[in-house]
Amino acid sequence: MESENIRLPWHMKDDEFVSYMRKVHKDVIVLDCSQCENLTHESFIQLSREEIVFDNLKHLYVPESSPFPDLVYECLAFMTPSLEQISNLRSNPNNTCDQLKCYAFFKKSNIKVLQDNPVENYGRINHASKTTAEKQKRQKWEQDLAKVAISCQKIESYICHGGFDYLDDKSFERLSVLMPGLNSIELKRCSLSDEGFVKFFAMNKFNKLVKIVLDDIGSDITDKSLKIIADNCPQLKKLSLIRLDKISKLGLDYLSKKCFQLMELSVDGKQKRTAFNALAPQSNSQDNECRVLDESVFINIGLLATQLSVLRLQRCDIIFKTIAERCDIYLNLKSLSLFDCSFGSFSPFVDFLTQLKCLSDLAFVDCQFVTPEIVINVIVKLTNLKKLTLMCKNKLFYSDVAPVAKEAYTMLTGENGGRFKLSSVEHLTVQGVSGQFLRLLTALCSQTTTLDYRHCGIPFVEKEKNSFKNIVDCEDLIEAVSACEYLKVLEVSSHSIGNESHNSKLNNEFFKVISTRLSSLQHISIDYDLKEVSKESILHFIKNSICLQTVYFNIAGCSFDESYLLKAAQNFRGRCEMSINSFKNNDNVFMKIVRLEFIAPQN
């Protein structure tokens, strides 16, 4: 049997799992049980009793819903001699699973990734406190970490989310001694300063780090830390700098000139107003000096980091007037994500994007400078764009789209009219636009195979009237969906449609249209009540959607019950199973029907 990456469906039960693993345990490399709602630790215990060994398993995802007890990991340590990573391993509220203790069981394995969350596992401590209880918590964490380091001597990646006062300069220095083979560190919410990085790299002489993720790791981190990283990490490929309030463009510029092998970069481009700068007058010149990323640094990164393929910018202000015609930067950039950014007038910015011949994934999130004109230009002019994410924050997306539609038509057909050029976009995610603009988007992106409206119609508040606008109604949704005849995945939420008028509710016509027009539809998710929809319409939809594999509906208040739907689905789709999730203090009841493509071998 060939090597396999197996992702198990949510409905997998213990007996099916055991039976299937007996068949594939020798060949599976990645086993993903993260979504399994019915899988218990007993299944792994049973495999252990049968002395089943996963010879080639390198990455195991345990279920997210219910953490396994320690005993399971003690068994897995003998069953998985090649295991390198366990995802979702965490302590549980019943104290039957201790995260670091579980890692320490794997003495003969090849564990390379260690996930640690001291606050979740040991409780909060105050760095300044001298109480015996808090000293004991910290001491226990340090001892457990040392045991893991002794047991798992091949650790290459340390991930710490929630280090707080546990992971300070002293313990960071100790970490480099305990795990000298680290090539990746991912730190979030810690208590580090520049001195911590000085000590870490003083002890770590191998300079192997290729991935560094720093998110809110300490209020005293400055450019000094960036310079230390740049001088000690010549092979750095992935870097993320988020919520570091005292770094500046000088530090980032120094780093860009040293780390030529960067492939992924995430930068939070503007500081919070903290104690060290809050009292200063905020003139334009001073605001410019506080920017972490400006035009010169942006150019240097694109010019020197020639392998950069992924760039994520957050709260950055860059004027593209002098950058637009540069065709020698970001030559290999494939993915660009912009969060709450500003780039001045749109023409130079769009001109810059058209220079990025490899760009296939573009995201605008909460960028007020993004207008309908920019979006249309992006869709029309970026001929290699495959994935577009729009989470808009501009009232222009709720205005009349006729002028924009006319401009789009002219760009696509030429001044004299001609053959209509199809957009290359295949994956479209939309939020914060009107129904009219939604129709225009899908008309332009008619080749789309994945359409995510889950947050499309989130209404905005008109301050002067203090009222909400209905943005998208059912007719808009029908027209938008009808334009995408190759659609395979459709997701709609309760925010996608207005909530007052009759036209805002999903109706029978909607299901009639999608069952007729969307012959390739495989997955549909509607987190929105279906009170206006008859059971005959649902049945007609299920019967006629020949490729349908997954149905996820909110059935609260519907005129049909779930058993009726499941029986109908089984008649048309073959073997199906259903899950029902209702939530306390919530009127929603969610139903999921899945066609079982994978059927576990039986005894």
Key descriptive features of the protein:
603 residues; alpha/beta; Leucine-rich repeat, LRR (right-handed beta-alpha superhelix); 23 strands; F-box domain-containing protein; LRR_dom_sf
Topology overview:
Elements: E1 4-7, H1 14-24, E2 28-32, H2 41-49, E3 59-61, H3 70-79, E4 85-87, H4 99-104, E5 113-116, H5 118-122, H6 132-151, E6 157-168, H7 169-178, E7 184-191, H8 194-203, E8 211-215, H9 223-232, E9 238-242, H10 249-258, E10 264-268, H11 284-290, H12 295-304, E11 310-314, E12 335-339, H13 346-354, E13 361-365, H14 372-381, E14 387-391, H15 402-413, E15 427-431, H16 435-444, E16 450-455, E17 461-462, E18 467-468, H17 474-482, E19 489-493, H18 508-517, E20 523-529, H19 535-544, E21 550-554, H20 562-573, E22 576-582, E23 589-595
Parallel strand pairs: 1-2, 2-3, 3-4, 5-6, 6-7, 7-8, 8-9, 9-10, 10-11, 11-12, 12-13, 13-14, 14-15, 15-16, 16-19, 19-20, 20-21
Antiparallel strand pairs: 17-18, 21-23, 22-23
Helix pairs in contact: 1-2, 2-3, 7-8, 8-9, 9-10, 10-12, 13-14, 14-15, 16-17, 17-18, 18-19, 19-20
Structure report:
By secondary structure, the chain is an alpha/beta fold. The chain has a 17-stranded mixed β-sheet. Helix 10 (about 250-260) packs parallel to helix 12 and helix 16 (about 435-445) packs parallel to helix 17 (about 475-480). The chain is globular. Residues about 275-290, about 455-470, about 500-505 and about 600-603 have low confidence and may be disordered.
